Amino acid sequence: MAIMHALAAVCLLADVGGAADLPVGRPVPIKELRERTSSLVGRDVAVAGVVEVVAPITEANFDDWRLMSPCAGSYYVTLRDETGILDVLVKGNCLRRPPLVNAPWIAKGEKVWMNVSIFVPNLNSFEFNPPVRAIVKDFGVLPAE
User: In which domain, by residue range, is 14 found?
Assistant: First the structure.
C-alpha cells in the first residue's frame, strides 16, 4: 500500500506539468518514453525501476551529457524497468560550497521512483533511435514489497 501512495504522489507531480496524455497513477514505462521521445523532450515524467549502474560524471563522459558546466558530485544512474533502460543524470552541487558538495547518492540495486525531465543530446530529427536521457528533479527509494 505504501508503494501505491509513493507512486501516486510522483505521478501527480508529473501531471502538474501539463502531461495530460501521460498515464496518471503510474510511472511511464521506459519503452514508452523511447517510443514517444519527440513529444516528451523537455517534459517532466515519472519513472520507476531498479538502479543497475551508478557512475560519476568525469572528464571522459562529460561531453556525453552535453552539460553547460560541471557540478561537483554529479553522477548518473542507469535505471531498468520491465520494458527497458534509461540513463538519468543526478546533478551535484553547482555552487561548489564544501559543506554541500556531497549530495545524496542512489545506490546500485535500489528500487527507486524518479521525477525526471527528458532530453536528447544533440537532437537531430533525421537520426534513427537517438540516445534518450533524463535529468532527475526528485527521487526516492520505493519500500520493499
Answer: 2-141
Cβ-based neighbour number of residue 11 at 10 Å: 23
Q: Which helix (H) or strand (E) holds 39?
A: helix 37-40
Q: What is the arithmetic mean of pLDDT over 63-70? A: 66
How many domains does the chain fold into?
1
The pLDDT tens digits of the residues spanning 50-65 come to 999 999 887 777 777 7
d(CA 59, CA 113): 28
Contacts of 58 (CB under 8 A, 6+ apart): none
In this structure, are residues 87 and 66 in contact, taking their beta carbons and an 8 Å threshold?
no
State the CATH number of the domain containing residue 34: 2.40.50.140
Q: Which residues are within 8 A (CB) of 102 and not within 5 positions of it... i.e. 6 or more apart?
A: 73
CA distance 104 to 71: 14
